[in-house]
Predict the 3D structure of the following.
Amino acid sequence: MATDLQSEQSALTADQATSPSTGTSTNRSTGERYQRIRAMSVNIAAPLTPEDCAMQTMPDVSPTRWHLAHTTWFFETFLLKEQPGFRPFHSDFERLFNSYYNSVGEPFPRHRRGQLSRPGLEETLQYRQHVDVAVSQLIDQGELNEHQRYVLELGLHHEQQHQELMLTDIKHVLASNPLYPIYTKNTATNNNTEASLSTTLQWSETPETIVEIGHNGKGFAYDNESPRHRELIQPHAIADRCVTNGEYLEFINAGGYQQPEHWLSLGWTAVNENGWKAPQYWVRGDEDWRQFTLSGLRPLDLHEPVCHVSYFEADAYARWSGKRLPTEFEWEHAATANPTGSVFADRLMESGHVIHPRTAGASDFTGNVWEWTGSQYLPYPGYRPVSGALGEYNGKFMCNQFVLRGGSCATSSDHIRLSYRNFFPPDARWQFSGFRLADSR
Amino acid sequence: MATDLQSEQSALTADQATSPSTGTSTNRSTGERYQRIRAMSVNIAAPLTPEDCAMQTMPDVSPTRWHLAHTTWFFETFLLKEQPGFRPFHSDFERLFNSYYNSVGEPFPRHRRGQLSRPGLEETLQYRQHVDVAVSQLIDQGELNEHQRYVLELGLHHEQQHQELMLTDIKHVLASNPLYPIYTKNTATNNNTEASLSTTLQWSETPETIVEIGHNGKGFAYDNESPRHRELIQPHAIADRCVTNGEYLEFINAGGYQQPEHWLSLGWTAVNENGWKAPQYWVRGDEDWRQFTLSGLRPLDLHEPVCHVSYFEADAYARWSGKRLPTEFEWEHAATANPTGSVFADRLMESGHVIHPRTAGASDFTGNVWEWTGSQYLPYPGYRPVSGALGEYNGKFMCNQFVLRGGSCATSSDHIRLSYRNFFPPDARWQFSGFRLADSR
Amino acid sequence: MATDLQSEQSALTADQATSPSTGTSTNRSTGERYQRIRAMSVNIAAPLTPEDCAMQTMPDVSPTRWHLAHTTWFFETFLLKEQPGFRPFHSDFERLFNSYYNSVGEPFPRHRRGQLSRPGLEETLQYRQHVDVAVSQLIDQGELNEHQRYVLELGLHHEQQHQELMLTDIKHVLASNPLYPIYTKNTATNNNTEASLSTTLQWSETPETIVEIGHNGKGFAYDNESPRHRELIQPHAIADRCVTNGEYLEFINAGGYQQPEHWLSLGWTAVNENGWKAPQYWVRGDEDWRQFTLSGLRPLDLHEPVCHVSYFEADAYARWSGKRLPTEFEWEHAATANPTGSVFADRLMESGHVIHPRTAGASDFTGNVWEWTGSQYLPYPGYRPVSGALGEYNGKFMCNQFVLRGGSCATSSDHIRLSYRNFFPPDARWQFSGFRLADSR
Amino acid sequence: MATDLQSEQSALTADQATSPSTGTSTNRSTGERYQRIRAMSVNIAAPLTPEDCAMQTMPDVSPTRWHLAHTTWFFETFLLKEQPGFRPFHSDFERLFNSYYNSVGEPFPRHRRGQLSRPGLEETLQYRQHVDVAVSQLIDQGELNEHQRYVLELGLHHEQQHQELMLTDIKHVLASNPLYPIYTKNTATNNNTEASLSTTLQWSETPETIVEIGHNGKGFAYDNESPRHRELIQPHAIADRCVTNGEYLEFINAGGYQQPEHWLSLGWTAVNENGWKAPQYWVRGDEDWRQFTLSGLRPLDLHEPVCHVSYFEADAYARWSGKRLPTEFEWEHAATANPTGSVFADRLMESGHVIHPRTAGASDFTGNVWEWTGSQYLPYPGYRPVSGALGEYNGKFMCNQFVLRGGSCATSSDHIRLSYRNFFPPDARWQFSGFRLADSR
């Protein structure tokens, strides 16, 4: 998932793609799924002003309007461009909304995306409609070949990745404004309920064992989840829920951000250069901590999982507490044995709740918050990038990043898998990222 | 005038302010003038989208929306705030739209102005209206004291300075977009007319003489134009018009941008670090040069004065041609003996023309393009900054800048004076800045 | 080993240290070993001028004089300081020559080490002697306790690490000078012999297997080599020798440095920002490539292993050739089955040869050139840092680095082990670093 | 004088050069003067170690050894190179010791001068001797033509400029070392004498007057001192001595470094970015201020002129005290009417005193400390750069610098003139720079 610099790292080998039968009813369901996923992007932008959609508050953030255009560009470039008779919406958009595909031409500089006032929001929505009409026609005609079905599938997952980035980027944009604007007045799922207390932390023990890791080939997956292979796991224990705000606050109050001994060397540099004193979006009030959320400034809920921490902070907390982060293999093994989570972006939006983590609980291996693992992002044994433009950069980001697992409250429920490997540099904090502890035995 | 970092450097000692009699008719004319000048700011923004008004394409550029708010903040802070019963439009705006007055509180970081999506354009226009109503009432009541009349006068000149910055900032914003959006389809005043040829350059000779320099005390002036004092001018000649695009093109074609011997040491560094090959907004086509204007990309007009050049470029051209730039005193002396120009922002807008220089002619000491002088910006002998917040920073920019004189096509005709001292660092190019030559005798 | 920022990451749990019996003969051999290793540092500096010893040509490089002092500081601080009656050579040296032990006090800024002219070379050598006399007395007294024996052992390995850094830093210093000064006129071991041709590359096949990885507890090891544990290795093949200059030249000639598709995203940035066109110290002549060595500029020997390449370059070459780098576990497994190398710093110096790689051959898993692996540097399962100042930063560098294995021609033969884990950021090139290929089966 | 980047800005039009008659006695005196001035450079380096001579502690500082070589390069390049039969000492030195003459070839990067260990100090001294022998022979032959006499003269003034830079650079190098090494144990001229109290400050009044400014053509001068011309001076008063440490301390104690209202905008930025709290080389002790001098750390002498302040600090002090700095014309006019100073580098060295300012007194317009003026460095009316390589960059530094006048305790007595224009950027502090006050009337 990662930033859009990375978000197209993923591809699907053709034989892994779903192979829908070509009957009319399938076309109809494919078309409806396309409409549904595409509509969610527009829904995410709906509460925003044109100016909100134009902001880039740090180089990693892209304007909402850019996300809306770039995801559209993906279908136009890889699916429609070679269709006979298709006319591009605007001849300059191919370069303007290319993220980093060198084979498609030199991309517009990433850090300058927030300096483009045109095309405006309205024209961008027209661009989306122009492409949606053409794609829908193509689907309805029922003559998509295998590669086209693959590109369509890939484009929808790509769109869902960018939906999560839209939400995290919007949060960064609004939080950068001293007026603390509110994205939505909706509340979180667990506010004001008696059940909103995090459970006592339990440890799950695992002896040395050989496990199967990676995608099993059923349904869609990115190529970095393959090949499925065997890994030897060492004896260890893993926590059954994530670290909470309350637990993390103890680390802060114990002076954790002032003590170099808990930190990686690069992490200590990051703490000092950025002036970190708490997770991102925590705001120190006169008497207490508050946190900026998509529904505005709120009191810090001690039972929620700590969120918007970097790998450095997760790792420092773990050292301070005498534990460590799980490897991505330990995580995947543990997740397989646990129930699926329920805090996902699509469901929150449908039920009228704000995109925000729920109280940390034992069923949250997926959803709620991404979980940093102690694994640097590297290829699986036998990994091969696919060929062509779509696979141009597969694996090119496998350096100096750490793997996150499980998705978050900003991920769609049909986008995440247990084998899904997200990755970010260790100082990234603007995603909904938390962590759970593990320990060697 | 300068950037807004500098644009409030100016103040008026109380006794220099106009002292209108307090009859009703005066109130009415003051009120009308206030309305007219304030309306021009809104008119400048009228062709723009909300997104256009939000962009900051380099640190020196402020979003149009910021200019609209900041000029309003000026009246609110220095005129209305202490009025009994006045309620500020929004309690946070005082800090948000402060440019650099430390005594008013810590300003919002200048380079982050383009990261604020709120207040949006609509709310900003409401803010203007809120303040305009209160100021107009104050004027109509006819009870402005001397200090209030001074602040009102200063605020209107301040507004006019920012109107010029709005125009140059908008030009920078639009030029930064590969789509080259058009601000207005209006054409320049001298397009397609037979009279649009620059005149043959003539030299005006002056022997050694002592001249009076600075503002004569009649009407409004900034404090940096005072005190009026005597200067000894050396024997010299000064050109009767500015250097044209055609003449400057010869310098380019002769390899001027590749030859260090014409350049100041800092200038040569600027050429290489920024990759300068021509004035800003010149675009090299396959066969010819074009220039980006507020009415879009157009063929380069060889008879227009060269514009959007830095001091470094003006100085290098002068050295290359065996001449030099005039001092600001030589310029002021020459300007006094010449007719007033006619290419000003207010007149161009009234007559439906684009803001763009006209063919270089002999009557353009004022208007058309600002003229770089060879004088670094320093205080006049006996200069004293005024006291209080408004004068807080008078003179604080008198270091490492060069003086420009005469105003430009983006200046209002009732804003400029022969004694007016504009100033910018020697690498600034986004203003409508050109130059004329001089020579020692 | 790594840079000195990292070089003290290593510690020895007390029970891993050698436990010499305390007889006089043991004291004598310990004393002799101490003298021998300490003397080698001085020998490395012997061909240099005082000015050579003062240079810091990039932040990663430390002046030779600093290395001489810092290794001495180690013994003074951790072994002598608490001895009754010991007087430090100079009260300010504790801070001046601390590399990064926060618990010892705030270190002098690393990047400013080349700005210290005092203490000079002569005084630094006196400092060494002062400490050597005290340490030798301590050894001779035969009353070292267990902790002291551990610190002594650690200090000697620390000294050997810095000896390698001295050699690589000196090479960088001399190569930065347009005069290309010669460190020694000695030649390499394999110059002008018929046997100096690299062998045809052979592949060694391994099926899936579980192997023991890490130090076996016999003799000295750093803590990052522990605990010894089991790893599952996938089916793969590994080359029996390193990639040669000749092979790497094909990559260059095929345009490898101009084609983004072979490079990691961060690697492509490094190529362009640093202007890399070949390995470090390669010099393009009019007709051929030459390389700067410690015996001066010499024709490029196509049969030597390619050296002074970054991880990015090793990885790009591997992708270009359709292969990959081995994991550190694959490497350790293969090395265990192969004969030990013979190209080490101590032996080269003893036999009067220059420190330079020898023709790539099948017996060079250790010595000759360090080998980049595809493994990011992470803790072994169950790794625990030791406590106290010496272990202060164990593991603090386990982030965004890659593991190198096997030692180089600049490593001492009694310093390297098959379990030895060196680590550097992926853009480091000034070490004697090469690589061998592997492939998945 | 300025940094060496600037120090060759100066040239002598041929007719301004001394025109010695060509008799043997003249040759002998020229030869002796050459030997004397050249010897002083070596004497300045005499107390230093080879390592001291190699340091570059900031980009503006050059290693002493570089100064020794560069001044030699000047004679070799501009005087000897075209002599028949002359063999350069080393073919690579032409590029290595070129400061910035583009017409002589691309100079070695300035900021990397401290990364060259070769040629070492000994070889550099041999280089000097090689050139000195050849120059002396040329002088003795008595056949120097006019241009050669001019170059010789220029080379000696160039050498003296670099002697001052050697002293200030050495001070910076030693002060950067926490050991605070002592350059010489010699004391200052006025230590421990009863007469060492600064006099009460007196003001000298001047009405409006026209004065002659610039060099009168007798003896050597740099071209920036010409042409001599008339300037109109406004009514003003000027202080008869410089501001003292004691007076400046009042500014510090009054919070001057914490109050933005006294500072130029760029100055306030410099204060905060550099963490300035006092003049350079002032060291805050537990109970009092000390200052680092070339004879080590000493108590601050309140009666000495404040030294090592930037233009920004001089200007801020002046504003704080309700005064201003004199213009360079006011200074030159006042200096003409006052006795010559006596605190110069050559005399201090001859009499065995340290290079350090003496108690501020009324006869110090020349010597003691350079005095910042309020004038930015611009060409005099009618200034023309000379042609050819030596004049290549005349005037290229006339931008964003301020003029200093009068020389310092590090200037040779036969190098300074009342018309001498030194110049530095407003944030430079490592020269012996102080200031006196003026006021408008």
Summary: The first helix of chain C runs from residue 4 to 7. Residues 4-175 of chain C form one domain.
